[in-house]
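Re-run with default settings, no changes from the original entry. Doing this only to confirm the output is reproducible before filing.
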Amino acid sequence: MEKVILDAPVFDVSGVKDSAVSDIEKSAVSDIFKKVLNIDPSEVSRINSKFVYDYYKVKDGDDQYAIKISYLSADPSLEAEAANLDKVNAKYPNLISPIKLASGSDEDLTYIIISYEQSESIESLSINELFSYDISFVTMMDAMHEVDISSSLRLGDKLNFDRSIIDMQEEIPQSIVDFMIEEHGISNPQITTITKKVSNYIIENYNEENLVFSNFNISKSTLLLRDGIVKCTNFESCYALNVFLSLKLAFTNIGLYNKSNIEKQLVKSYATNSTIFNMGKEEFLSKYQSSQKVNKLIIFSDLFSKQLFQIYGEGIGNQPRLYKNFEKYNHIRDDVKEVIGEDIRIVDKLFNNFLANHIE
């Protein structure tokens, strides 16, 4: 199983999601725009949807906006994004992020209105194409790292959030718990044991120095390209993190799994162009490399909680997401195994068994 998992190809079996916007949704969007911006939208279309919110493009004549709506009062993800955008906009308005135009909450929903970016998604670009814009990408990261972190959450808050998702297992129906044990050999106590081992390792080895404003959600799906400038569109999950972790997160999420030369090139480029750190590029790269293991375990903590939420909360219908998680897991698996030992078999099952073309 171990050799097969590491060598397994990843297939994207994504389907086309219904992009139609219902009359109820259009009414909700229009009511917010009329109330907040005194605008009566001429057109509302869906950009995408997540488990907790819907994301729309809104037109008012030639003007265009974007809005995220959660049908939860005081939704923490959108409230966090609004606060994070305030910090980013205060430092660099509309340079590395959209502009936050309005946000709010009532008893039925939470919303955030931002500028609509007339930009190209980078999802269709290859790694080599994307990093032909390496200076722009590095500049975006460096600019983001300059954002004020005095009120930002720390890594401990992120680990607590990851554990809170895992603790939701207590609310899972017993029939599902029994099914996971009988069909897949995965039990809640095993998951708890894995989580404790990983958390203990991180706490013992993570370096709280060189903290910068960091975004767990930098990925090919959240980055846009316009006139050679790269910017990020999602700021829900931001923390003050060690700079080497911040860079490793971004490079892993973008997919630099087996492109170590490009990764090293970008790290050196960051060190050379950084306005924050006065450190030689070889010294910076050495410190980046020496922190790889703990940073991969932190990435695993985030990924593990997301995989559990995906399976237990949303189900296995979102196969593209499960395949992306599987691919990222393969990249960090060896380091995870060194920390959790034989429990790696449980994690292998969690990331493999729910794929449409899973490995028997």
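Residues 252 and 353 are 23 Å apart (CA to CA). The beta strands are 43-49, 54-60, 63-70, 100-105, 110-115, 120-121, 211-215, 223-226, 229-232, 238-242.
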